[in-house]
Amino acid sequence: MTDLVTERLVLHPMTVGEAERVVAGEPGSGDRWAPGYPTDGDVFAARRFLGTCASTGDPQPFGNYEIRRREDGRAIGGLGFHGPQDTNGSVTIGYGVIPSAQGRGYASEALRELLLFARTHGVTCVKGDADHDNIASHHVMLAAGMRSAGQDERVRYFEMTWSDATPASTSEQAHR
């Protein structure tokens, strides 16, 4: 699996070893973590990834990705899939960036790339959710092109659907 690259970010597919270090909170010699990384959310996602690897094998390309700034290579957060696509072609995603990196559009930029990646890999629907009071996360999903898809007493749901699973057109890629 190769890195996904955006204008300002590198989305690096996590390996088992990287996930183990995130869970332990101890970077390896080659890891470049920004202060505040990993967050509790990153540790939770790494544990889920490790559990999936142990039970069914590495889920790539539908695994976890470390969000790194291109300018300095430092990890500032993570995003990824909660698992492979279901029988309907649907996946669920999650993401987060460290507090010092919030408010700069990094999460939306990373999510737009992951949405494009999902579509080019045959996914027909990407779902996400955020607590009602997590307005910043609502903005991230809307800015990435997802639409509101309902709510319950705890969370607001978002999704992006495509009527086909073909790769994005050139004009869609130009508007990322």
UniProtKB/TrEMBL annotation:
Residues 9-165 form the N-acetyltransferase domain. PANTHER family: N-ACETYLTRANSFERASE DOMAIN-CONTAINING PROTEIN (PTHR43441:SF6), RIBOSOMAL-PROTEIN-SERINE ACETYLTRANSFERASE (PTHR43441). It comes from the Bacteria. PROSITE patterns: GNAT (PS51186). It comes from Streptomyces prunicolor. This is GNAT family N-acetyltransferase. Signal peptide: none annotated. Gene3D superfamilies: 3.40.630.30. InterPro entries: Acyl_CoA_acyltransferase, GNAT_dom, Ribosomal_N-acetyltransferase.
